[in-house]
Amino acid sequence: MKKAINILIITVCVALPWSCDEGFLNTQPLDKVSSEAVWSDGPLSQAFVYNVYSFLGYGGFEEQALASITDEAMFTHAGRNIDRFTEGTESPGSLAWISGTYEWGNMYLAIREANVAIANLPEATFDETLRDRLLGEAFFLRAYYYHQLLRYYGGVPLILEPYGLDEDYAIARNTFAECVDAIVADLDQATTLLTGKDVTAGRASRISAMALKARVLAYAASDLHDATTAQANSSVLAGYNNIELVAYTSGNQTDRWTAAQTAAKAVLDATSGYKMNLTAPVTPEEGEANYVSIAMGGQSAIGDATAAIELIFQRTHTPLYTQESAWPLGGIHYGINNGPNGYHNWAGNTPIQQLVDDYEMMDGSEFDWGNPTHAAAPYDNRDPRFYATILYDGASWKPRPDDVVSYDSVNQIQTGFYEGRDPVSGEPITINGVDTRKSSVEDWNGTRTHYYTRKFIDPDPALPDNQSNAQVIPWPFIRYTEMAFLYAEACIELGQEQEARDWINKVRFRAGMPGINDSGAALMDRLRNERRIELAYEEHRYHDGRRWMIGTELGRGIKSIQVTADLKPGMLPTTRYAHDPTRYDYTYTVVDNVENETRVWNDKMYYRPISRDEINRNDLLIQNPGY
């Protein structure tokens, strides 16, 4: 456990005038602010709480995304320790990559800061309205950081007050149930304190506290956290002697799902999402535009400003809390991190074929490589959210940089290999797509799956991703649609299928997809796929796959696509390629990508290991199952 000392010093930038005053040595230092001064001054207290927000980092807009340890994406660049997780070799002494927004020590540092605020704000002497708002935010943030730890590790030590200098820092893990209760209690406090307070983008609100409670309760109701169910489905968990640290050992799932349903419905009733009142599907074009608008947070020039009501809790990417740094790139640099190399971008977290295949056809049927029509044109007639999320061979995109126009003047993604003609000799050649790893443009940054992500990259053609005028799209920690899914999931678990279908269809109609009529196991499968598609790249799949105990899907390997284009009979080769089904016959071949990353699933991966260093520092900690 990290040592926590209850000392508060805020450094400020001031000019220090020299003086011959005899009382100089008795004055307070002018480059520090005492704890007493902070809690008697509203702006200083607010600055302290803003620092607690800073542990949110970029949200999910890091260079390496959580999607790349799931069946959503693959991280292109080697040497980042992602493979230690995906290949199942992670151990307490050899940890895999982990985002700072989940990392044990970093989260406890954040919790310590929240504890300081919670301990001091009740006695603050400034404006009561501001005081209560800051206290509510501190309770929310402590709950949020504990829920991050809970999602990764199961039950963790609950530290709910700042430690003093001489206290014993060794503390045992609390049970999973105790952690859930503590988080819910904090969120109930936050809800009360934030009621009636102004809502500011990027800051906690009454609704965000209610929504986080709904998420925590839904996760708690899931199979992974019911001891009987979890141990029946995993030999690793069945052999764990401290199952109470990661699951409920009493009570029943029905009661827990009822609590989750009530909490989610309270959020749905208290606010409204983006175009969630439709009774029929919009057009495919409008469905795609709706999804792009939501991903832009309502801030893009081409977006719809009303999309902002979809975001219940967001990480705004402005200098509001922390100044964005140039390195490591994240947040405002999402485009350069993930865009195509043919735009001088880095292809960081590229979609894999399994995600692409899970997008339905426009009529609501499943995509099927065994269907000759589907296989001949796999990117035609798909769920409109596919076109708003994935950049595929032939997809239209932004204007190319000036030095790439000679390879592509029509602004189409090129991730295939095409029959063409050498511009000098006139001999037949294969033209390598400019966005491949055989490109003439930064081939080392080309995708290994032959896809790129479009979601969360501002499509404004005047905003080149590889330049300094970076995007400021907010990260969606929690959005209204997630609440709709959690409510629908609880309804299914409780046998209320029509209510579940109604809410799933609200999401589908907004996307331009037809309504569903599934029931039983098929309805649950549909819900899970709908969450997978709608919430892609939003850090849900990793947690969903684990709480549903379908880890083998997360570790089922990486499939990529190979695209080739052969000239139709009578068509003459050209020196510069453009996607054109009237000139070329296209072949799409799914291949296993085993050269770069061989994925497996071991049930120990349902939880992350507590590091050996933490265990050595605190001998009361019990390690997670399988490690």
What's this entry about, in short?
Helices cover 35% and strands 8% of the residues.
Low-confidence runs (pLDDT<50, min 5 residues)? 1-31, 319-328
Strand order of the largest sheet: 8-7-11-12
Mean pLDDT: 91
The Rg value, from CA coordinates, equals: 26 Å
Profile the largest sheet. Answer: 4 strands, mixed
The helix fraction, in percent, is 25-40%
Strand portion: 5-15%
* Number of extended strands: 12
Broad shape: globular
From the N-terminal CA to the C-terminal CA, the straight-line distance is 19 Å
Number of helices: 21
Structural class: alpha+beta
Structure description:
The chain has helices at residues 35-38, 42-53, 82-86, 104-120, 128-153, 176-194, 206-221, 227-233, 235-238, 253-270, 284-295, 334-338, 353-357, 372-376, 384-389, 480-493, 497-511, 520-534, 541-547, 551-554, 612-617; strands at 10-11, 32-33, 73-75, 311-315, 349-351, 390-391, 417-421, 428-432, 452-453, 475-479, 559-567, 584-592. It has 627 residues and is of the alpha+beta class. It has a 4-stranded mixed beta sheet with strand order 8-7-11-12, with no helix packed on it. Strands 1-2 form a two-stranded antiparallel sheet. Helix 4 runs antiparallel to helix 5 (128-153) and helix 7 runs parallel beside helix 16 (480-493). It is globular and about 80 Å long. The two termini are 19 Å apart. The model is unreliable at 1-31 and 319-328 (pLDDT under 50).
